[in-house]
């Protein structure tokens, strides 16, 4: 028996009923943009994969993020939902539409989440508008490197209503949903006329600007992203990319393991959107200054799920030093970055990171 994963996840998370409102904007081509707006706080703009909208697929995700203190913006692509306008367009035109959404409903700045092929829009927005999109989330991206041809073919079959239900369901089970999950959820919600309709996309190796912070969310059962490609983003941009993993999920991800997505995404989003971090950086190194050390940069909060079993121990030399556990929960960690000359003997901090945050004048919301 299949379990409706969306409803099951809602019960697990204890989500409130959907509280989004529907807004409308006039876009760059005199088109209408339908935007679902939910929550209040720092903004996260969700852009779906090609040929799918962001309505049903992201309802529970949007509610979970709104409950966590974020404003979730879900503009519908042209030709989907109540959005209108020419479907065949350019990335620049779509980007201009999304800037209008961010300026109107997101206070001029947003983290952009691109799911699957929607990664290209996230990358493009970060590259074209770094002040408005300083951070992006890439969820279940296909690197385009040696993609299995059989897997690649599932996109055209799953989205094409001329195929039988059995053929489409088989394609969804192979390319999109992990065993035991309800692939029939995606038999609807496709807009095949929109596939390949946006031109002038950035190259696969372009990931935002040279300052863009990236959360690379990998579903461990995603056949579009083989294990030998799991270090793809870190290979391109180094420690500007944080890689996290969601178990028991494939390419569809959000209707498969919503709890896992929220667990890895919310802590990272908090580090990207809190206004306190710069103050914390300055206060920390003023408190822990040593005569033989001139620090170019202080600490930078960064989500690192592998740090859960470690306690904070500053290490010598430049670059990332040691992970620190911020609070009583295993999901709240920082990495510490220090640059400059610091001897091993004098490198030990006066406070651990959790102790310092408790005594700081500026605390992220999670620790207030």
TrEMBL record:
Domain of life: Eukaryota
One family name in Pfam for this protein: Abhydrolase_1
Region named Disordered: 305-330
Signal peptide range in chain numbering: 1-18
Domain AB hydrolase-1 residues, every copy: 54-154
Transmembrane segment boundaries: none
InterPro entries attached to this UniProt entry: AB_hydrolase_1 (IPR000073), AB_hydrolase_fold (IPR029058)
The UniProt record lists the keyword Transmembrane: no
Keywords attached to this entry: Signal
SUPFAM superfamilies hit by this protein: alpha/beta-Hydrolases (SSF53474)
Gene3D superfamilies the record matches: alpha/beta hydrolase
Name of protein: AB hydrolase-1 domain-containing protein
Source organism of the structure: Colletotrichum simmondsii
């Amino acid at each position: 028996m299949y379990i409706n994963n969306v409803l099951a996840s809602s019960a697990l998370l204890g989500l409130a009923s959907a509280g989004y409102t529907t807004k409308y904007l006039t876009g760059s081509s005199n088109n209408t943009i339908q935007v679902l707006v939910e929550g209040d706080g720092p903004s996260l703009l969700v852009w779906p994969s090609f040929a799918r909208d962001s309505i049903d697929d992201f309802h529970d995700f949007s509610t979970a993020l709104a409950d966590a203190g974020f404003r979730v913006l879900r503009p519908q692509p042209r030709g989907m939902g109540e959005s209108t306008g020419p479907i065949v367009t350019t990335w620049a035109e779509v980007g201009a539409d999304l800037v209008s959404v961010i300026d109107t409903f997101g206070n001029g700045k947003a983290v952009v989440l691109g799911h699957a092929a929607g990664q290209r829009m996230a990358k493009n927005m970060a590259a074209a508008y770094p002040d408005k999109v300083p951070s992006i989330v890439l969820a279940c991206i296909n690197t385009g490197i040696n993609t299995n041809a059989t897997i690649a073919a599932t996109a055209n079959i799953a989205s094409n209503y001329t195929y039988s239900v059995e053929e489409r369901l088989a394609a969804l089970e192979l390319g999109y949903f992990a065993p035991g999950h309800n692939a029939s959820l995606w038999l609807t919600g496709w807009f095949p006329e929109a596939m390949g309709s946006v031109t002038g996309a950035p190259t696969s190796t372009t990931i935002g600007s040279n300052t863009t912070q990236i959360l690379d969310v990998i579903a461990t059962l995603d056949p579009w992203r083989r294990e030998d490609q799991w270090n793809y983003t870190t290979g391109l941009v180094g420690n500007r990319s944080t890689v996290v993993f969601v178990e028991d999920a494939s390419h569809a991800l959000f209707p498969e393991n919503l709890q896992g997505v929220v667990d890895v995404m919310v802590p990272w989003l908090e580090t990207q959107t809190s206004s306190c971090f710069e103050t914390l950086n300055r206060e920390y190194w003023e408190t822990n200054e040593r005569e033989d050390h001139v620090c170019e940069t202080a600490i930078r909060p960064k989500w690192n799920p592998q740090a859960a079993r470690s306690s904070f121990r500053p290490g010598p030399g430049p670059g990332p030093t040691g992970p620190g556990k911020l609070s009583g929960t295993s999901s709240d960690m920082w990495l510490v970055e220090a640059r400059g000359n610091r001897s091993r003997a004098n490198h030990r901090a006066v406070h651990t990171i959790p102790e310092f945050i408790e005594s700081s004048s500026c605390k992220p919301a999670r620790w207030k």
